[in-house]
Design a protein that fits this description.
This protein is mostly helical. It has one domain (2-288). 76% of the residues lie in helices and 0% in strands. It has 13 helices and no strands. Helix 2 (36-57) crosses helix 10 and helix 8 (180-200) runs antiparallel to helix 10 (213-241). The protein starts with 5 loop residues before the first helix and ends with a helix. It comes from Ancylomarina euxinus. It is a multi-pass membrane protein. Its main location: membrane.
């Protein structure tokens, strides 16, 4: 099966890193018209609407024993972190958000070891440290990181990464019998109504006062459809076939694409950038090793 192939798993990691690396920009655009909570709600609602046909189709696979895990996948893995990230990005820059997001593999290992008895090798720990060092170095070497902007809002990102870690381990341990599409569509069957109910309680009058709101809504649509619905189908499929730590290492690769976007924008890649990228790739390689 192609999902078992290391080269295919790494390709999925690169695709996810590219998509989620662009999500920070889309969030910022959406926040120009919408409040942080409205942006998160719209993201979740649009993702659930896109997945709705598959949710209905996969209802026959919904078992009572899986409901708890699907609720964790929906709310702990997506719904609450979406609100945490948009809240955080009202006060901290995207570079810092990306750096804090790189803590996900570390938390994934901790949760796996303490709550799921995950087995690991020393080179997996080495890979985590090397990858984390490369990710932090890559972000810190850019111009976008302002340590003066570190405040209590950074804790929202840290909490979100903890939730990601819980979700990844839960899917790996208890939902591996379902496909990535089944997991994602059934999880969003629960979060969609919650997002709709919340949005109906908010005030959209200030939003309509901004003549550019349709463009900002389009950014949130991209965030919901591509950055959430499609990306999570790929991520949940990857979790089923690779280790939880390996799947979470996508957050190490995201900064590489941030640097690539900088290249397009006219920025230069330095030797330090290249060294940090090698550290990231080496770390991911070590994490992926079976023995």
């Amino acid at each position: 099966m192609i999902w078992k192939k290391p080269w295919f798993q790494f390709t999925i990691l690169l695709i996810l890193a590219f998509v989620w690396g662009s999500s920070f920009i889309l969030m910022k655009i959406g926040l120009k018209s919408f409040t942080n909570d409205q942006a998160a709600g719209i993201r979740m609602l649009l993702a659930s609407m896109v997945l709705l046909p598959y949710s209905i189709k996969n209802l026959k696979h919904l078992k009572k024993k899986d409901v708890k895990s699907l609720l964790i996948a929906g709310f702990i893995g997506s719904f609450i972190p979406a609100f945490l990230f948009t809240k955080a990005q009202t006060q901290i820059d995207s570079a810092l958000a990306g750096m804090l997001n790189s803590m996900t593999p570390v938390f994934t290992l901790v949760v796996g070891v303490f709550f799921h008895r995950t087995k690991f090798q020393l080179f997996h720990i080495l890979g985590l440290l090397v990858g984390l060092l490369g990710a932090i170095g890559l972000i810190a070497s850019g111009n976008g990181l302002e340590f003066g902007h570190i405040n209590s809002y950074a804790l929202f990102i840290v909490l979100a990464t903890c939730f990601y870690a819980i979700n990844i381990n839960e899917i790996k341990a208890r939902l591996s019998h379902l496909s990535g599409m089944q997991i994602t569509s059934l999880a969003f069957l629960f979060t969609g109504p919650a997002a709709l109910i919340y949005l109906l309680t908010t005030n959209f009058a200030p939003v309509l006062e901004n003549p550019s709101w349709p463009i900002h809504l389009l950014a949130l649509a991209g965030l919901g459809i591509v950055g959430t619905a499609i990306a999570l189908v790929l991520m949940n499929s990857l979790i089923r076939h690779a280790s939880a730590i390996y799947a979470s290492s996508v957050t190490y690769i995201i900064p590489i694409f941030a640097i690539m976007w900088g290249l397009v924008d006219g920025e230069k890649i330095t030797l330090l950038h290249l060294v940090c990228m090698l550290f990231i790739l080496l770390g991911v390689y070590l994490i992926s090793k079976k023995k």
